[in-house]
Specification:
The chain is mainly α and about 375 residues long. The protein is built from 14 helices and three strands. The protein has two domains: about 100 residues; about 190 residues, Intergrase catalytic core (hpI Integrase, Chain A). A hairpin with a 5-residue loop joins strand 2 and strand 3.
């Protein structure tokens, strides 16, 4: 198993053999024993390579040479480079996780990182859209018609290239566009051209994507990872594989059901190709829709509709906040979002309290 990303390969190869073996063993432990996501493995391994490189510069030749002073020196150096508090917290967590694993594996005599303090991070309140703004966003495909230049659009029939996961061409940010039918296209004498079936299919997909993101509050990676078999149309729920490969069942509403049904009946068959497999959402070339592409789709429609800058995670924030504003139980929202800790969900109660406070100041005679 390779434990190096493009940014850490050279440094990893420059480490002493014992250090390299420790990096590879730690990566296997994270992926296969701790069942961490590929993103977490990459981040922790990159932090470990940076730590061990720093240790080598301080005279260490093997993991057994590490001590608390080396770890603190490395973290201090990271802070002097302007690392964000969230990055510092992750680096400290990576150091503690490695130290604990190395001690259990016999590479360290003691767990040297046990006394290591975690830098406090400031939790920013998420920016959420109002319900009417979300409605504007999810209804944008077909209303605020985006231009096809630079975005996820079908290729000429017969010339579609196979697309591998992660390589689907992401669309550029969608520019502001007039509503469909507005005389605005100089190449057609002022008339907006009709879309061909494949381009219509992309709009149908975009509507279903936006509806499902808001209806379920799921992460963009979770939605893009859905297969057609993960949808239970009778019970109106989806089966989501979340962080740590934890599976959960999430309900969705009638608007999302209508949009997904239309996509499955009239949109997906138009884009499907040899590389589609069972993927629910497809890119314009027939491969599974990549999260990067989906993020740009969401951001583009938000810009075209004149809304605040919005991401798929913003829709997740909005869904959670609207549920709590509507009286949903906090633990139910935790289950819906797939949070392992209730503390991760409680941030949305702060958003609701802020809205309550704003309404109080505006409406109460003695506020």
């Amino acid at each position: 198993m390779s434990s190096r990303g493009p940014g850490t390969r050279a440094t990893h190869q420059a480490l002493p053999p014992a250090m390299r073996d420790a990096v590879d063993g730690f990566a296997v432990h994270l992926a296969q024993v701790r069942n961490r996501s590929a993103h977490t493995v990459r981040a922790y391994v990159a932090d470990l390579v940076s730590l061990l490189d720093h240790a080598v510069r301080m005279g260490c030749t093997a993991p057994a040479d590490l001590d608390l002073g080396v770890l603190r020196s490395w973290l201090a150096k990271q802070r002097t480079t302007g690392a964000a508090s969230s990055s510092s917290a992750r680096q400290a967590a990576a150091a503690r996780t490695f130290s604990g694993w190395a001690h259990r594996s016999g590479l360290l005599a003691t767990d040297v990182a046990a006394p290591l303090a975690t830098p406090k991070t400031r939790r920013e309140l998420p920016v959420v859209l109002r319900a009417d703004q979300v409605a504007t966003l999810v209804e944008s495909p077909g209303r605020n018609r985006p231009t096809t230049q630079g975005r996820d659009r079908p290729t000429t029939p017969g010339h579609d290239r196979p697309t591998t996961p992660g390589r689907d061409v992401p669309p550029a940010a969608l520019p502001d566009a007039p509503p469909a039918g507005t005389p605005s296209d100089p190449t057609t004498g002022g008339a907006t051209p009709e879309l061909d079936p494949a381009e219509e299919a992309v709009l149908v997909r975009d509507r279903a994507l936006l509806e499902l993101l808001y209806a379920t509050g799921a992460r963009i990676s979770e939605v893009c990872g859905l297969d057609t078999t993960d949808i239970d149309r009778e019970r109106r729920v989806i089966r989501v594989l979340g962080k740590g490969n934890r599976e959960r069942t999430v309900p969705y509403g009638l608007p999302a059901q209508r949009a997904v049904d239309r996509w499955l009946a009239a949109g997906r068959p138009e884009l499907a190709g040899p590389d589609s497999g069972r993927a629910l959402f497809l890119g314009a070339r027939g491969g599974r829709l990549h999260p990067t592409t989906a993020r740009r789709i969401v951001a583009g429609y938000a810009r075209a509709a004149g809304l605040p800058p919005t991401s798929p995670h913003g829709l997740r924030h909005s869904a959670a906040t609207h549920l709590l504003d509507g009286g949903a139980d906090l633990r139910a929202v935790q289950e819906l979002l797939g949070h392992s800790s209730l503390g991760s969900t409680q941030i949305y109660t702060h958003v609701s309290v802020e809205r309550l406070r704003a309404a109080y100041r505006q409406a109460h005679p003695r506020a």
